[in-house]
């Protein structure tokens, strides 16, 4: 009783081409426990098909996770706004205007 999530891997059981193993968090006893699962098939082909399907689902979960992250980022960016601040005219003119004013007062 567990989900296949991104990052999970399945591998052949040592010494038997018809079986494979993987780690997952099990909730069968209504308590989360990290478990090692093993399954044995009637044929090598069935085992290979299971392993390929398992990996495809794990990869698709990774892609979905990335899409959720991208969507959350896009939503956050949409909420951002840029406000234009209006400053005093003297501040807008900057240091050059202040220098000109000092120069004019020295000339007088």
From TrEMBL:
Molecular function as annotated in GO: GTPase activator activity
Sorted UniProt keywords: mRNA transport, Nuclear pore complex, Nucleus, Protein transport, Translocation, Transport
Keyword Transport: yes
GO BP terms in the entry: mRNA transport; protein transport
Keyword Magnesium attached: no
All residue ranges annotated as the RanBD1 domain in the record: 1-63
Biased composition range(s): Basic and acidic residues: 76-92
Organism domain of life: Eukaryota
Cellular component GO terms held in the UniProt record: cytoplasm; nuclear pore
Stretches the record annotates as Disordered: 60-108
Cell location: Nucleus, Nuclear pore complex
Protein name (database record): RanBD1 domain-containing protein
């Amino acid at each position: 009783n567990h989900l296949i999530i991104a990052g999970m891997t399945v591998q052949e059981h040592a010494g038997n081409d018809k079986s494979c193993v993987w780690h997952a968090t099990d909730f069968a006893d209504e308590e989360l426990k990290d478990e090692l699962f093993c399954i044995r098939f009637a044929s090598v082909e069935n085992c290979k098909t299971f392993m390929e399907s398992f990996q495809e689902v794990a990869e698709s979960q990774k892609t979905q996770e990335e899409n959720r992250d991208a969507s959350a980022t896009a939503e956050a960016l949409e909420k951002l706004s840029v406000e234009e601040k209006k400053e005093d005219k003297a501040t807008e003119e900057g240091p050059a205007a202040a220098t000109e004013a000092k120069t004019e007062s020295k000339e007088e």
